[in-house]
């Protein structure tokens, strides 16, 4: 039994199934969000997404996932949580759970989902810059090359439309920057069980968004639209985060983040498949540059340092590294 388990974990090291699955789930949300932006106002849509994310964490309650806290009391953020951790959690909710999805939804209202997905590669650029400039993390030549290529690819993708038919690229950059800030803030929450963080982020984001959504006007969507919005939130914002955290338990934070960087390409491919958006030479060139950039960033992350893991309460899913 132990030999089989070690063999399975060694396979997970070579083939990062959990991180790629998380990237697929998040990428899947993009083409299904695009049609919803025409039916639901942004504030209401973001509220439904994060309301649905609460259903998405249910698979994380399965003991085999290895994410359960030691006691149910931890879900209430016990008194030993420090003021710094509480501030970081609140900032994560506001930046990553309220402002970033609103910016993404706003961008999708007037911009092709396939191109918007590729622009979200800017999150890798912003994450590296914030970690380097604000948190003093070192950057090697591979990461520097990746940053330059990401900048080039996003620039080509954003500023080559001569007919000005695509407007709203700035919202994707804003969303990418806010989620990059969120990623760096999460370093202060490593002591808190990841499933607890996911629960509070979903609940907190929904509670903050709902009052603004109500004030923006009545919601007149059909029951089918509400159900679809909740489902997109459950899969793309809830379950994807659970799988992302499960990947961290297997291959570490750095490698998980690097492999998750391929989610924009998944979103772009699915948008072309489901929405039938046109493919231009600019799109192909930018996609090639960005794919190369993410690959180089992935190499740079692996060479920078050994991953720091969130300790597991379940020995069966502790990192093998």
Could you explain the architecture of this structure?
The structure is a single chain. It is globular and about 55 Å long. The model is unreliable at 305-321 (pLDDT under 50). The chain is 70% helix and 0% strand. By secondary structure, the chain is mainly alpha-helical. It contains 13 helices and no strands.
Q: What is the string of helix and strand elements?
A: HHHHHHHHHHHHH
Largest sheet: none
Would you tell me the structural class of the helices and strands?
A: mainly alpha
Query: Cα distance, first to last residue?
Result: 20 Å
Q: Per DSSP, what share of the residues sits in E-state strands of 2 or more residues?
A: under 5%
Mean model confidence by pLDDT: 79
Helix content: over 70%
Based on DSSP secondary structure assignment, what is the total number of beta strands?
0
Shape: globular
Question: Whole-number radius of gyration?
Answer: 19 Å
Low-confidence stretches: 305-321
How many DSSP helices? 13
Defining key terms:
321 residues, mainly alpha
Explain the layout of strands and helices:
Layout: H1 2-14, H2 17-36, H3 42-56, H4 83-108, H5 113-119, H6 122-133, H7 141-158, H8 169-185, H9 194-216, H10 223-251, H11 253-260, H12 263-275, H13 281-304
Helix pairs in contact: 2-10, 2-11, 2-12, 3-4, 3-9, 3-10, 4-8, 4-9, 5-12, 6-7, 6-8, 7-13, 9-10, 10-11, 11-13
Summarize this entry quickly.
The chain is mainly α.
């Amino acid at each position: 039994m132990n030999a089989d388990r070690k063999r399975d974990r060694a396979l997970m090291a070579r083939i990062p199934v959990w991180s790629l699955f998380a990237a697929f789930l998040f990428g899947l949300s993009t083409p299904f969000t695009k049609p919803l932006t025409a039916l639901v106002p942004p504030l209401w849509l973001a509220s439904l997404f994060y309301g649905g994310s609460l259903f998405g964490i249910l698979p994380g309650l399965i003991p085999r996932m290895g994410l359960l806290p030691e006691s149910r009391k931890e879900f209430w953020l016990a008194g030993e949580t420090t003021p710094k951790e509480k501030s970081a959690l609140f900032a994560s909710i506001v930046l990553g759970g309220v402002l970033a999805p609103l910016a993404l939804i706003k961008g999708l209202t007037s911009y092709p989902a396939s191109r918007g997905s590729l622009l979200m590669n800017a999150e890798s650029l912003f994450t590296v810059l914030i970690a380097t400039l604000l948190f003093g993390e070192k950057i090697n030549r591979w990461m520097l090359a990746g940053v330059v290529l990401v900048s080039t690819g996003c620039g080509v993708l954003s500023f080559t439309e001569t007919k000005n038919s695509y407007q709203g690229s700035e919202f994707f950059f804003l969303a990418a920057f806010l989620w990059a800030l969120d990623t760096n803030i999460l370093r202060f929450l490593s002591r808190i069980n990841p499933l607890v963080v996911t629960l509070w982020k979903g609940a907190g984001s929904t509670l903050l968004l709902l009052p603004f959504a109500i004030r923006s006007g009545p919601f007149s969507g059909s029951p089918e639209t509400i159900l679809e919005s909740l489902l997109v939130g459950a899969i793309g914002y809830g379950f994807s985060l659970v799988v992302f955290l499960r990947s961290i338990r297997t291959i570490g934070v750095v490698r998980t983040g690097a492999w998750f960087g391929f989610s924009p390409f998944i979103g772009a491919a699915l948008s072309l498949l489901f929405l039938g958006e046109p493919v231009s030479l600019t799109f192909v060139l930018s996609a090639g540059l960005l794919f190369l950039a993410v690959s180089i960033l992935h190499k740079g992350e692996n060479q920078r340092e050994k991953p720091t893991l969130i300790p597991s309460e379940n020995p069966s899913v502790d990192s093998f590294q």
